[in-house]
Amino acid sequence: MDLYKFKLDFKVRDYECDLQGVVNNSVYQNYLEHTRHEFLKSVGIDFAGLAERKINLVVIRAELDYKFPLKSGDEFWVGLNFERISEIRFAFFQDIFRKPDSKPVLKAKVTGTSLNERGRPFLPKIIEELLAPGD
Amino acid sequence: MDLYKFKLDFKVRDYECDLQGVVNNSVYQNYLEHTRHEFLKSVGIDFAGLAERKINLVVIRAELDYKFPLKSGDEFWVGLNFERISEIRFAFFQDIFRKPDSKPVLKAKVTGTSLNERGRPFLPKIIEELLAPGD
Amino acid sequence: MDLYKFKLDFKVRDYECDLQGVVNNSVYQNYLEHTRHEFLKSVGIDFAGLAERKINLVVIRAELDYKFPLKSGDEFWVGLNFERISEIRFAFFQDIFRKPDSKPVLKAKVTGTSLNERGRPFLPKIIEELLAPGD
Amino acid sequence: MDLYKFKLDFKVRDYECDLQGVVNNSVYQNYLEHTRHEFLKSVGIDFAGLAERKINLVVIRAELDYKFPLKSGDEFWVGLNFERISEIRFAFFQDIFRKPDSKPVLKAKVTGTSLNERGRPFLPKIIEELLAPGD
Asked: Taking a C-beta distance cutoff of 8 angstroms, is the pair B29, A25 a contact?
């Protein structure tokens, strides 16, 4: 049984590394975001399309535990789980592992909500369905 | 009395905004990092110089509460406090406020440590002094 | 007499440096873009505002001569000139100099045009005026 | 017969898009750099490893023709050719095409050289061999 609902493979790109010779801390948020958006696309939710219609999925809190740094040439994958945590909030649990040794790289919890054109919390039906129990 | 030990002024740059028309979530970590490094420089600690000598200040945990998004043209400032939280760990408390209305934008706690060439926790004397009580 | 119509001051941020310990090549385009947008703002043209109205100023060619790399801690400025080079095209000439020794860092020519909602070349009146002879 | 010595597949990530809703101009240099480094790795040249030994492959000129913008969700590939253009300079010719329709996105020529620890032009033997006629 798989521990993650969604996984995505990556490879470090040299421009993502900083003067310490490792991937810069902020770049992990790029990896996490891209994984969330690819996951959403895989279940029929288009982040960019929603944004064009002024429905914005937004992050309200990110907790990132940096376990081990990625370096030039490293391959890795991001695993993703999620759950509804309130009427209008959902949480993504995202972990990064280096390949091929599965060394834990980062552990994150990213809490989000969805806002309508007036900036009010609003879950589109497609997200309601995604978060429904039993899914 | 000032609430922050260090402050730095910024202005949003358009390339930092994403397709939602606001500053991308990951970019706030850039703002926070730059503020920490400028603070360190102001007390005589050169992040890049330490890295060259293989002493690496590293983030081990970041908690970011996104309160309100910055947009194209926005000016803002980052306030910074810090404290030693264990023998070898220190925490930065960093808040972002939009100008001129002081609207809270982001509230963060960034926990770090310092590693020597072999990747072992190691606080250089200059950081010991910075973290000493009474400072 | 000043050689540039517009100038903007910057300071290198450590996250902009890559594993060679210098500012990554792509980041200079960020500096150049931010300078162009600040220049445009200074003459009353809001890049983001135009984009919202689906009028997009776009780069069609960039030529960048890298003279000397910027490093952590470097301060520098970008000088900007521009001219209309055809009915619908304009060119920005942008040079970067390190401070305080004025060492040439980068010399660039960035050619652009403006597109309307249907992607057709279209110069808004405010840009026509900017590019008018004698300006 | 293949027109390119090396090809690499990519997919646009949403954080690479700016407030115009398309990939930011500077990001194409990231794509081009990553392709060059992957190509070099494929022929046994490790960019990061060289940098650690203070041998730095550097870009001295970049010419980028922007033909058509990439957007959220687009897949594309970068084709690469190169040739020696002087005793100590080499040029990469890199073209980007959208998938699956092969629409031309960007055409670039990136001129580089290699510097030793003292910043003097110096081609390591492995690069000499790469650039040798008949290769």
From this structure: yes
Would you give the DSSP letter of residue B23?
A: B
Assigned token pair, C31:
């500096």
Distance, in angstroms, between B118 CA and closest chain A CA?
13
Q: Give me the residue label for tokens 């969330």.
A: A36
Backbone dihedral angles phi then psi of residue A25, each to the nearest 5 degrees: -50, -40
Position D134 scores a pLDDT of 61
Q: CA C18, CA A22: separation in Å to the nearest integer?
A: 9
Q: Which of B85, B41, B79 is nearest to B61 (CA)?
A: B85
Is the pLDDT at D94 greater than 60? The verdict is: yes
Tell me which residue in B13, B47, B48 faces C34 most closely, judged by beta carbons.
Answer: B13
Q: Do D17 and B18 touch (CB under 8 A)?
A: yes
- The interface pTM score, or ipTM, of the predicted complex is 0.94
Q: Are A47 and D71 in contact (CB under 8 A)?
A: no
What are the residue ranges of helices labelled H in D3-100?
27-42, 47-52
Taking residue A133's Cβ as centre, other Cβ atoms within 10 Å add up to 6
Q: In chain C, what residues touch D30 (CB-CB under 8 Å)?
A: 26
Write down the pTM of the prediction. Answer: 0.96
pLDDT, one tens digit per residue, over B99-132 is 999 999 999 999 999 999 898 988 888 888 888 8
Q: Structure tokens of A106?
A: 């980062």
**Mutation site, C59, C89, C96, interface D, largest D CB count within 10 A:** C59
Contact D110, D85 (CB under 8 A): no
Any idea which residues of B carry the catalytic annotation? 18
Q: Answer whether C116 touches D (CB < 8 Å).
A: no
Instruction: Name residues whose C-beta falls within 8 Å of residue B1's C-beta, 6 or more positions apart in sequence.
Output: none
Token representation of residue A53: 């219609």
Helix (H), strand (E), coil (C) string for C91-132: EEEEEEEEECCCCEEEEEEEEEEEECCCCCECCCHHHHHHHC
Strand order in the sheet with A75-84: A6-11, A75-84, A90-99, A104-115, A56-66, B56-66, B104-115, B90-99, B75-84, B6-11
DSSP sequence for A61-120: EEEEEE-S--BTT-EEEEEEEEEE-SSS-EEEEEEEEEETT--EEEEEEEEEEEE-TTS-
Task: Flag if B19 and D18 touch (Cβ within 8 Å).
Answer: yes
User: Coil, strand or helix: which one is A50?
Assistant: helix
Q: How many whole angstroms separate alpha carbon C107 and alpha carbon C112?
A: 17
Mean pLDDT over each residue of chain A, to the nearest integer: 94
Q: Residue B60 is inside which H or E element, if any? A: strand B56-66
| Minimal C-alpha gap between B15 and chain D (Å) | 6
Tokens of A116: 């309508």
Neighbours of chain C (3+ CB pairs under 8 A): A, B, D
C-alpha distance from residue C119 to each of C116, C122, C123, D67, D75 (Å): 5, 9, 12, 12, 21
What is the rounded distance in angstroms from the CA atom of residue B110 to the CA atom of residue B108?
Answer: 6
